[in-house]
Amino acid sequence: MRRVTWLTATAGTILFATPAIAAPLCKGADAPMHVKVDARRHDIIVTVGPCRIAPMDISMSMPGMMGSEASGVVDIKTRFLWPVSGYMRSFTLTLFDSTSKVLPQNTMHHLELVNFDRRQLLYNLAERVLGIGEETAGAAVPKSVGVPLDAGTHMGLYIMWNNETDTDIDGVTLELRMRYSPANMTPRPLEVLPFKVDVNLHPGLGDAFNLAKGGGERSTEFSVPVGGRLIGVGGHLHDFGKELRLEDVASGKVLARVRALRRPDGTVIGVRHQLFGIWGRGPRLLPGRQYRLVAVYEDPKGAEVMAAMGVMGGIFAPDDMRKWPAVDKSDPGYIRDLEGAPLPARQPAPGKMP
Hints:
Layout (H helix, E strand, L loop, with lengths): L5 E3 L5 E3 L16 E6 L4 E11 L4 H4 L14 E6 L4 E11 L11 E12 L6 E8 L5 E2 L4 E5 L4 E8 L7 E14 L7 E2 L1 E6 L10 E5 L1 E8 L5 E10 L3 E8 L5 E9 L5 E4 L2 E2 L8 E2 L5 E8 L5 E5 L1 E9 L13 H6 L13 E2 L2
C-alpha cells in the first residue's frame, strides 16, 4: 500500500508531500480518506486523496446522454463517523495538486455530504447536509444558527470528478473544512436543517430532463410533514436555466425566487441566493398546504434544452424538531438512492490535530 506523508504546519493547515508514484484512481469506497478535528478552531477537516483523475467518459458529457449527474453516477462513495457533537455552521472546499498548488474548483463536478441517519424534509432519502458544485462558493451562518449533528452519526462523502482533458490529472487532494459550534454553547443555537426540492426526482436513476425548442418549464408540487420557516434558499440549474420559483399553489403567490447568472449565450455560471434573515420573516411553510417548485429554462438560439435540472436547496428552521419524520432505511427509494454505498466497516477513525 502506498504511503502518504502528512505534514502539519500551523493549526488548521495541512500540507501534502509530493507523491513518488502515481496516485490511485480513487473509485467507489476505496478512496484514501482522513477525518481530523481542530478543537481549537472548532473545525472538522475531511480530506480525500491524493487521487488520479482519469479523463471523463465523453458519453457522460454529451447533451442528452444519461450519464454522470443525469444517472446519479459518482466516482467516490465513502463513509465516516461524524467526530463531535455540535452544530455545523460553515464549509469551504479546496482542491490541491501534488505540489500543494490550488486547483480550479471545476476539477470536481459536484460533492455531497450525506447523513445516513436522518431523512430529508420532503423525501424519505438520506439527508444531504450540503452539496457543492463547480460554481458553489463556501458558505457560513452566524454562531446563533447551526445544523445539529451528534458524534457517531453515520456520514458519507459522494464525489464526482470533472476532468475534461484527454490526460490523467495526478495527485489531486480534496479538502472539505467545516466549522461547528460546540454542543454546550450558550445560548443554544437555532436548529436548522437542509431544505431540498427537485422538480424531477427519481431516486437512484437521475433527475435530468429535456425540454422543447427554446426551453420551457418543469414543475412539481409538494407539502411538508412539519411546519417551519425558510431562512434562505439557493438552487442548481444547468445551462440555459433562468430561474427557480417556489409558489403557494392555492394563492399563486411567489414565496421565493432565485435567478441564474448567465452569459449571453445562456451558459449558467452560477445561481443567486435569496436570504431572509435568521430572525426575519422568511416564508413559513405549513403542513398539509400545497406548494409548487418551478424551473424555467430558455435557450436564446431556440434549440432543444437537453439534460436540464431544477433543484432548490436552502436552510429550514422547523417549528418542532421532535416532529421531524424518522428515516425508514428499508424503503426501496432510500435503498435505490444509496445503491453502491459502502458498508459501515469502511469508516476510518477520526483523529485530532495537535
